[in-house]
UniProtKB/TrEMBL annotation:
The chain crosses the membrane at residues 17-37, 77-100, 121-144, 156-176, 188-204, 236-256, 295-316, 343-364, 394-414, 426-450, 457-483, 503-524. It comes from the Bacteria. Keywords: Membrane, Transmembrane, Transmembrane helix. This is Exporter of polyketide antibiotics.
Amino acid sequence: MNGLGALVRLTLRRNRWFYLAWVLALGAMVPATAAAYETLVGGLAGDGALDLMAANPTMRAMLGPPTDLTTPGGFTVWRVGTFVATAAGVMGLLGVVRGTRADEEAGRTELLRSGVVGRHAPLTAAVVVGLAACALLGLVVTAGMSAVGEPVVGSLALGLGVALVAASFVGVGALTAQLTSSARAARGLGLAVLLAAYLLRAVADAAPQHSVTRGLAWLSPVQWMALARPYAGERWVVLLLPAALTALLVAAAFALESRRDHGSGLWTVRPGPDRARPGLLSTTGLAWRLQRGVVAGWLAGLAVLALAMGSLSGTFDQMVREVPQLAVVLQRLGQGTDRLVDAFFVALLGLVAVLVAVVGAQLWERLGAEEERGHAELLLATAVPRTRLALSHLAVAVVGSLVLLVAFAVLLAVPESVSRGDAGPVGSTVGAALALAPGSLLVVGLAVLLHGWAPRLGWLVWVVIAWSFFVVWVGSLLGLPGWLVSLTPWDPLPALPVEPMDWPAVLLVTGAAAALMALGVWGYRRRDLRLP
């Protein structure tokens, strides 16, 4: 394991801001929810109404299994605990792929191995740093919950559960990095595993209490933190599951690394055809060919989410009959509407609009990756102008984002349309999604602007996305100042059908997005290429 210390320091230096941003964002969300417990639940906890609400299949599928909802700690585990554990898994997965397969694909690992470095040292360094980041997140969560007055034992169980769930996906990332031959494939496979685990949890939690399906929750790693029951009679033995899974996956990753050649994965890449298809004769066709896997993966995931959430919307009337106070909570989520299905759709579309912005930024950033790998330089050495190359990737980002948002809206409303026997809900939901689309395009425009003029500041786009996600997920319930909540690209846009259509706001945000894109493409024409 020669050179391990130096590689750990190098990996930590190259990824410190990536991990720090995740730790601070997720670590702040947990105690903030606990501190706002009284504001969030009001009088729901005292008369058992909150327990009735949490027992509803819709709420269980969305938020996870409830524990003790009469305390701020138990409520926090239910309201944001499963989400934070899942997001921490994303952090661990992406972080270890950055330090393994991505560096190997870029040639950095080969350069390091030309020195006195052990074969497994790069993978070990990436895993060590990833596990350290998970441990730091667990410490931040534990300290934050203790600081707001929650029991130390429960806080420790929550922090340890989040850290171990994240660590298990460090193992998933280490394993997929050995199976695939590219960082994109490793990330895609790992995220597919995480999404499958989350959907398995949602299906299991929504099942009847004595159903066999309910037991499937034990097979989902993202559920193990909640099953450890922080603040509700902690079951410490449950936390041995993610610890054991982490050890097993990491050991498998090291074993597989010994069996594969450098630069390749265990899954061989099929040779392509001897002649290119006509679509690859254009820059737009090439950009789509490079990105179609990303779009297809997101489309599949959002389709499953839309159908699952849409099918649960029919249970709101029964929920409100059982828990009348729930109407107040849902109305706050849905901008004050009296129709609970609309409130649910408004809140969900606001969340998915941010996810679509993530997709748009991800699709656009492929141009930066092609530039850093030297591929863009090869294209530009031919008769391809820079503007055409940039617009090709921008077209895929814009069209792909819009298609995903509209597809989600259609599938979300299909169950209600079927139950009502008319297509009205589909049309209104698509209209609501399109009204939010300019906000997603504004984020893409910011990404284009930064790439064209200041590529090193591209991380600012993810700061905007992270803040918007926080506001959408819990900001409306935490009683934050209005000016602070309004600092998102979607705030000026109307939340249809709750609010009336505001054409000036929609056109203004759309125009701002187009202006940022134009300025970014102009800047890309003028600056030097970022060479590998």
